[in-house]
């Protein structure tokens, strides 16, 4: 039965996340962006809410709640509204948890998900993106070659979040033209983590380039072992997550611009009393709602275990444009003030540009 | 629980609408476009007495299907239409029986609503048509234009026109009241039927009222003028009633837009597929062809509009307020269909521009959805006022 109403439990999660975003994330996000650091205690606090760990299966020591992309989308919209960098770090364990839950063998789940029941967030990440303009997740240049019972990984990755402090990396590589994932320990010989990247936005999140040179990975460290993984589903889960986050960032900008336009006076009245401003705000509100509902539909389809490639791709495509346009309009509403770092809209504008680039950097 | 699964009943309703679109609308679509104002009698007989699917989700989805078939002919569906909506919403039980029961029996009949005047469109509170009480009657005088289905409603026996007139010009909106004028009433005259860009199968009439006398009981809602309407319930028959009707009809117009937009989208995708071109959704943006980007943009815009329409209809079926969401859906869908159909004609080149295909017709038909039931801009204004919490005075 078609319905647009989150369940009671989902509403609770939304409220909890909104509170956290307001009370914790919004207090420090500008400083995080300026200094390029995220305090460990905010990540720990978020982890202690237990939302992420709740999807760890019972036989791995978790609560065994069913993973829901819809619930995940609701959750990450709120976190991204708080701050995109911090949200990406809070959600980073999902980069490994979701693919494991989708395609991991029992053994792999036992081994890597049990860490998710610790009081501290697990130190894991994944590496998908490669540094070239025509990067295509389905045609990776990083290669995996099976030789003498081991996989040899060779390639160059970038925008790997938290790589320097991670114990385990899920590295995506092309095996005979198909994208597969490999569980790589940080001490693997041939794995080199380069200096931290300097990016236009999402500056608080530490990201790295990594090099893989003849990294020898035991055969059973391929995600799903003999069965491998269905990368299409993983990519769809990532597209939905990022589109939901784009809605969060867009909503943050829209709300700020709306409130500003109501209290900023020009020619004796609030600038929001002029249609030139009011119509921009109305269009922003409409596009944000439309994108959110598209995210829900794509997430719902993922949860139904149906092929969501079309829905996930369309909403990611739409959300990438939407968030850029809306963060741009938000600066425009503020005029000169929007360009000044005392206001947050320039930060959201820089962060927004990342979405079209960052496939695979979040999962629901 | 967020859910997008249709019930078997909903699926059956939508499929039935789609079948009619394929069998009864598409084959005659071009004919009634080129024979403007000719009545699609066979279709009208077929649709007469068919139960409607309501204002909820499946009702809107059915409308999308009909308009995928032909938006102009769909507008000529027999029934009480917009005139009936206001009677249903604000009339007394006696009035509902007296005016609406006829639409469930006998020969096909039509209802229509007359609001717009030569001097006022979006600013409906500025209407000049007057209603003056004379004993047991009201006397109407004025001129109305752009009445969808107005000719049928005013001339075919059993029809009715719901006319908005003022009983007190000095009272502004509070003086506005709806009156039911039966087909054939002396003093009501169809002055002309407009020649239009699109939706040509639907008659858009100008009707004059000259000392047109109707029974006193034909006023819908309360006759007295309240200078300040304290709440929506009390004012339902008046201006607020008209505006509340829009909350139901805007999602319908938006659903109609979806149908026209999807017709164009389906056509383009099918034609391109014959040439071996299928959009590769999974590709990153930098690898998509310009054509694929256009297609994805059209499809995503259709989807975005559709989601807003379904939400507005779902709220209505839950008896929740949907004023903001109805205007969001209408504004987005009107713009989306306009862009989608224009791009579709562009993509198909000479095939798109040729009247041998329906694409150019859909571009002409679709444009009306950005205009009637509140232009895109009027709906933006409503959205803007709502999100800002601004009154009409604060945001003009």
Helix and strand arrangement:
The complex is a heterodimer of chains A (364) and B (396).
Chain A: H1 8-35, H2 40-48, H3 69-82, H4 84-91, H5 94-103, H6 106-113, E1 124-127, E2 143-147, E3 150-161, E4 168-175, E5 178-185, E6 191-196, E7 207-218, H7 231-263, E8 265-266, E9 269-270, H8 275-303, H9 309-334, H10 345-352
Parallel strand pairs in A: 1-4
Antiparallel strand pairs in A: 2-3, 3-7, 4-5, 6-7, 8-9
Helix pairs in contact in A: 1-3, 3-4, 3-7, 3-8, 7-8, 7-9, 7-10, 8-9, 9-10
Chain B: H1 8-34, H2 41-47, H3 57-74, H4 81-90, H5 93-100, E1 111-114, E2 130-134, E3 137-148, H6 150-155, E4 160-166, E5 176-182, E6 188-193, E7 204-215, H7 239-274, H8 290-317, H9 323-348, H10 350-353, H11 359-366, H12 376-388
Provide a descriptive summary of the structure in words.
- The complex is a heterodimer of chains A (364) and B (396).
- Chain A is α+β, with helices and mostly antiparallel strands.
- Chain A has 3 domains: 110 residues, Acyl-CoA dehydrogenase/oxidase, N-terminal domain (Butyryl-Coa Dehydrogenase, subunit A, domain 1, Orthogonal Bundle); 104 residues, Butyryl-CoA Dehydrogenase, subunit A, domain 2; 122 residues, Up-down Bundle (Butyryl-CoA Dehydrogenase, subunit A, domain 3), CATH 1.20.140.10.
- Chain A has 10 helices and 9 strands.
- A 4-stranded antiparallel sheet of chain A has the order 2-3-7-6, with no helix packed on it. A 3-stranded mixed sheet of chain A has the order 1-4-5, covered by helices on one side. In chain A, strands 8-9 form a two-stranded antiparallel ribbon.
- In chain A, α9 runs antiparallel to α10.
- The two termini of chain A are 23 Å apart.
- By secondary structure, chain B is α+β, with helices and mostly antiparallel strands.
- Chain B has 3 domains: 72 residues, Butyryl-Coa Dehydrogenase, subunit A, domain 1 (Orthogonal Bundle); 149 residues, Butyryl-CoA Dehydrogenase, subunit A, domain 2 (Beta Barrel); 149 residues, Butyryl-CoA Dehydrogenase, subunit A, domain 3, CATH 1.20.140.10.
- In chain B, 48% of the residues lie in helices and 13% in strands.
- In chain B, the strands form 2 sheets. Chain B has a 4-stranded antiparallel sheet. In chain B, strands 1-4-5 form a 3-stranded mixed sheet.
- Chains A and B meet through α7, α8 and α9 of A and α8, α9 and α12 of B.
């Amino acid at each position: 039965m078609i319905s647009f109403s989150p369940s009671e439990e989902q509403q609770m999660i939304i409220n909890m996340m909104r509170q956290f975003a307001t009370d914790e994330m919004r207090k420090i996000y500008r400083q995080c962006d300026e200094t390029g650091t995220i305090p460990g205690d905010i990540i720990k606090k978020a982890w202690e809410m237990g939302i992420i760990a709740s999807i760890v299966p019972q036989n791995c020591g978790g609560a065994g709640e069913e993973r829901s992309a819809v619930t995940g989308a609701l959750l990450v919209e709120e976190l991204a509204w708080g701050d995109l960098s911090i949200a990406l770090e809070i959600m980073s364990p999902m980069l490994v948890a979701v693919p494991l839950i989708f395609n991991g063998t029992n053994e792999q789940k036992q081994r890597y998900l049990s860490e998710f029941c610790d009081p501290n967030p697990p130190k894991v990440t994944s590496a998908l993106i490669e540094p070239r303009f025509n990067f295509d997740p389905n045609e990776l240049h990083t290669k995996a070659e099976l030789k003498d019972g081991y996989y040899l990984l060779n390639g160059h990755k970038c925008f790997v979040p938290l790589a320097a402090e991670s114990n385990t990396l899920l590295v995506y590589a092309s095996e005979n033209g198909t994208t597969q994932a490999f569980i790589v320990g940080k001490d693997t010989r041939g794995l080199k983590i380069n200096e931290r990247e300097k990016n236009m936005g999402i500056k608080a999140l530490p990201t790295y380039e990594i090099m893989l040179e003849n990294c020898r990975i035991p055969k059973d460290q391929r995600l799903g072992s003999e069965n491998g993984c269905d990368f299409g589903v993983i990519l769809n889960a990532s597209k939905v997550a990022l589109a939901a986050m784009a809605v969060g960032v867009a909503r943050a900008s829209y709300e700020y611009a709306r409130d500003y336009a109501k209290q900023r006076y020009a020619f004796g009245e609030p600038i929001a009393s002029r249609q030139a401003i009011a119509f921009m705000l109305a269009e922003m509100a409409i596009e944000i709602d439309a994108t959110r509902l598209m995210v829900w539909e794509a997430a719902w389809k993922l949860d139904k275990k149906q092929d969501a490639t079309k829905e996930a791709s369309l909403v990611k495509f739409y959300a990438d444009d939407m968030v850029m346009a809306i963060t741009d309009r938000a600066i425009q509403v503020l005029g000169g003030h929007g360009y000044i770092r005392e206001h947050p809209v320039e930060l959201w504008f820089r962060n927004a540009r990342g979405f079209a680039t960052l496939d695979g950097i979040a999962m629901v | 629980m967020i859910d997008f699964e249709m019930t078997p009943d909903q699926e059956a309703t939508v499929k039935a609408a789609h079948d009619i679109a394929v069998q009864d609308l598409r084959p005659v679509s071009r004919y009634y476009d080129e024979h403007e104002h000719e009545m699609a009698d066979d279709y009208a007989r077929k649709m007469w007495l068919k139960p409607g699917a309501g204002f909820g989700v499946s009702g809107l989805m059915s409308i999308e299907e009909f308009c995928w078939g032909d938006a102009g002919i769909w507008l000529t569906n027999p029934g009480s239409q917009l005139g009936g909506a206001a009677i249903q919403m604000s009339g007394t039980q006696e009035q509902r029986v007296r005016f609406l029961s006829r639409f469930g029996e006998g020969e096909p009949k039509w209802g229509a609503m007359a609001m717009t005047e030569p001097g006022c469109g979006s600013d409906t509170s500025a209407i000049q048509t007057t209603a003056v009480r004379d004993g047991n009657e009201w006397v109407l005088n004025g001129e109305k234009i752009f009445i969808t289905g107005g000719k049928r409603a005013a001339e075919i026996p059993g029809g009715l026109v719901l006319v908005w007139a003022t009983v007190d010009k000095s009272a502004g909106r509070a003086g506005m009241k709806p009156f039911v004028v039966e087909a054939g009433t002396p003093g009501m005259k169809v002055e002309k039927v407009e020649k239009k860009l699109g939706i040509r199968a639907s008659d858009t009439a100008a009707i004059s009222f000259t000392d047109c006398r109707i029974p006193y009981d034909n006023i819908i809602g309360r006759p007295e003028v309240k200078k300040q309407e304290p709440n929506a319930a009390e004012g339902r028959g008046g201006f607020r009633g008209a505006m509340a009707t829009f909350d139901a009809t805007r999602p319908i117009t938006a659903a109609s837009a979806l149908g026209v937009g999807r017709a164009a989208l389906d056509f383009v995708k099918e034609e391109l597929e014959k040439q071996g071109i299928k959009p590769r959704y999974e590709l990153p943006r930098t690898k998509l062809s310009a054509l694929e980007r256009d297609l994805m943009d059209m499809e995503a815009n259709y989807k975005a509009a559709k989601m807003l329409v379904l939400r507005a209809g779902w709220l209505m079926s839950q008896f929740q307020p949907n004023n903001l969401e109805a205007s969001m859906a209408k504004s987005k869908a009107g713009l989306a269909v306009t862009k989608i159909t224009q791009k579709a004609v562009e993509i198909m080149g000479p095939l798109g521009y040729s009247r041998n295909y329906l694409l150019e017709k859909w571009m002409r038909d679709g444009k009306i959805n950005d205009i009637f039931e509140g232009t895109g801009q009027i709906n933006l204004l409503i959205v803007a006022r709502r999100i800002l919490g601004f009154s009409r005075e604060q945001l003009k």
